[in-house]
Design brief:
14 helices, single chain, two-stranded antiparallel sheet, globular
Amino acid sequence: MGGFHIMTKPIGPLCNLDCAYCFYLEKERLYPGTQQWAMPEELLERYVREYIAAQPGDEVHFAWQGGEPTLLGVEFFRTVVALEKRYAGGKVIHNALQTNGTLLDDAWGAFLAEERFLVGISIDGPRQLHDRLRVDKGQAPTFDRVLRGLETLKEHGVAFNTLTVVNRYNAESPLEVYGFLKEIGSGFLQLIPVVERAAANPGRDGLVLIEPGCGEDGGVTDWSVQPLQYGLFLTRIFDEWVRNDVGRVYVQQFEVALESWLGLEQSLCVFRPTCGGALAMEHNGDVYSCDHFVYPEHRLGNLRETSLAALAGSMRQHQFGQDKAETLPGMCRACEVRFACNGECPKHRFARTPEGEPGLNYLCAGYKHFFRHIDPYMRFMGGELRAARPATSIMNLLRSSEAGGRGGSRTGGI
């Protein structure tokens, strides 16, 4: 089998924050009575050994998330690194840690720098936008603590990127969010849409947020980004980026879109024709089909009982990935931007087409708007790259043509 990726939850869903939109906090209800959430060392060792062995290439990428993984303390991750070195077998090991940043201090900064971790910081924009939904257990704001953590990373020279959850509130201020992220020094931005449906009453498993793909009635939460709102958010930032920041600021959605226009396989699973190569593992060894499908119905098994390679390569997981393409509605199959969208994440495919066919992505209108808007720019940049010229030349072209009074979305022959 080919390589696969695991989003590892070494402390499960436990977190020191209480973000209003977090879909993972309630996963604690899947493990009632748990007293010890930290992944036991013998399980951690088995995971590290098997994950490295299962990767076909010379480089192995570990991703540590939560919950909030820094609750485990630096010593836990010293053990992680020691195990990785023991079982590396000549392979190059990379580590990525996603954190809310509030617990980062000098000890963390020194360790992360020494071991060359890539750190993802969750931050939703300037203070008033970030603190709207990202609060702690006492409902107190977290912005200042996040910035202190970010400053710690900078002081120690730790590589970092930012993950911004695009919700119904900060989506109204695209340039404010984008300008702020550049101001704090982020050179790589993830702008992730949040869309969740909530049931009127908890299900048998105690979960309130409705399982993706479930036909059960449930309304989209009031903090979920709206379809066209998300498309307009991306479009407004793109217009700023394509004129000023190509090659200097890497916005994940824009980079992946360029891959699509170049005919390459998308590096982000949500835009690939099929999925299934990005799984999630809980603190106790339970492996699920995807981070967004941590529901009993999508539990593949447990690492204590079945090898990681067997779980990732199972027919059940293969079918999970194929379902993304096989359940695509006819409207999507005929869509002119299907090559870039491919129905996006199955998590969001709970709407119906105008003809009543199920499986339409809730964010469809937004993606159509965005991909249609960027088409001429992507065609131009793709042409430049194929001709062995830099994509950054688009900025000079746009500036010169717009300075000459020929503004618009297709200026300068684009």
